[in-house]
Write a structure and sequence with these properties.
The protein is mainly alpha-helical and 103 residues long. The chain is 52% helix and 9% strand. The chain is built from 5 helices and 2 strands. A two-stranded antiparallel sheet has the order 1-2.
Length: 103
């Protein structure tokens, strides 16, 4: 697992991902967690809508016992990060994003 899988840590050419950088947080675990991390990373970031829809479809196909805890983890992680590093007005969307797949 990369654990920091977001567009800033990906290299691409010709519309395809060609590699990842910044592997200092890499660990053993379920690689599907990186897809959840990527989805949080493109939230509101101007990603191609088709790519976002495709990623959402991939996430929708994950087993609930994989997706739900990964989503909850990332939601808590981003809310914590927002509290510690962002202005209050910048934090508002993270709890909303976290709740989207937990209901």
């Amino acid at each position: 697992m990369h654990l920091d899988f977001h567009p800033g840590n990906l290299s691409a050419a010709g519309g395809s991902i060609t590699g990842g950088v910044d592997w200092d947080g890499a660990a053993r675990g379920d690689h599907r967690f990186d897809l959840v991390t990527l989805r949080f990373g493109i939230h509101g970031g101007g990603a191609d809508p088709a790519a976002t829809r495709h990623l959402d479809a991939v996430l929708d196909a994950l087993p609930e016992d994989v997706l739900r805890p990964a989503w909850a983890h990332m939601g808590l992680r981003m809310v914590d990060r927002a509290i510690r590093h962002f202005a209050p007005s910048d934090m508002e969307h993270w709890p909303d994003r976290a709740e989207q797949r937990l209901d």
